[in-house]
Amino acid sequence: MERRASEPIVALRLFADRNFTLAQVIRFLGGVGMVVAATFLPQYMQLVHGASPIASGLLILPAMLGMVAVLVGTGRLISRNGRYRIYPILGGATVTAGMLALASGLTLIGGLGVGLLMQSTTIITVNSAEPRDMGAASGSVTLWHTMGALYTARMQDALIDRLGAESATRIGVSVGLLSPGTRDCVKADIAILMVRGFAVWASK
Question: Is residue 99 exposed (0-12), middle (13-18) or buried (19+ Cβ within 10 Å)?
Fold first, then answer.
């Protein structure tokens, strides 16, 4: 489809550049880490472990602060010395360590890794494109983040499988309506199934 479109979302000729292609792969993987830390982890803590919104928000605060600090610092370093190859390597290693550290509730490392990846891959992406493709290259920077919406859409099916269609319809299971308040308003047996369904979906 992108080959036939007169104005493709992302021109496929951009992927002929090895640096561009590698940057998109790295950015996609880094985006997964960011979505996990910023979106799914707070939901998991609230729905499965019963944490309050404030407590789950404080859990990801170190990741957000670390990511912003590294984004700013990395940008300044790259503009100063013009070198950016080392940052995706450091970012990938740090994100990997950060995902492992999530088991102990430590989110700062993941945030640092995502910050290293996001800034450097953005610069690589833009620098790899010709002037005529600059807009498409810039758009590809955020394209891969939207893939998280496809993963999120699976949550409804996973919960329906656990609850059964009748129970799911009764409590109005959907990504938009599901909340800790929903869990507290249903019968205990349904609440247990709902929590288990969410836990199974989040672990995949």
Answer: middle
pLDDT (tens digit per residue) in 41-95? 787 777 777 778 788 888 888 888 988 899 889 988 888 888 888 888 888 888 8
Contact 115, 74 (CB under 8 A): yes
Asked if residue 121 lies in contact with residue 34, where contact means CB atoms within 8 angstroms, the answer is: no
The pTM (predicted TM-score) of the whole model is 0.68
Position 68, amino acid: V
Per-residue DSSP letters for 40-56? IHHHHHHHTT---HHHH
**How far is 134 from 125, CA to CA, in rounded Å?**
9
Residue 94 tokens, joined: 């740090």
Q: What DSSP letter does each residue of 44-102 carry, written as one string?
A: HHHHTT---HHHHHHHHHHHHHHHHHHHHHHHHHHHHH---THHHHHHHHHHHHHHHHG
Inform me whether the pLDDT recorded for 167 exceeds 70: no
How far apart (Å, rounded) are the C-alpha atoms in residues 48 and 14? 43
Pick the closest to residue 191 from 175, 169, 174, 167 (CA basis). Answer: 167
Compute the distance between CA of residue 30 and CA of residue 115 in angstroms, rounded to an integer: 9
Q: Measured between alpha carbons, how far is 91 from 111 in angstroms, rounded to an integer?
A: 10
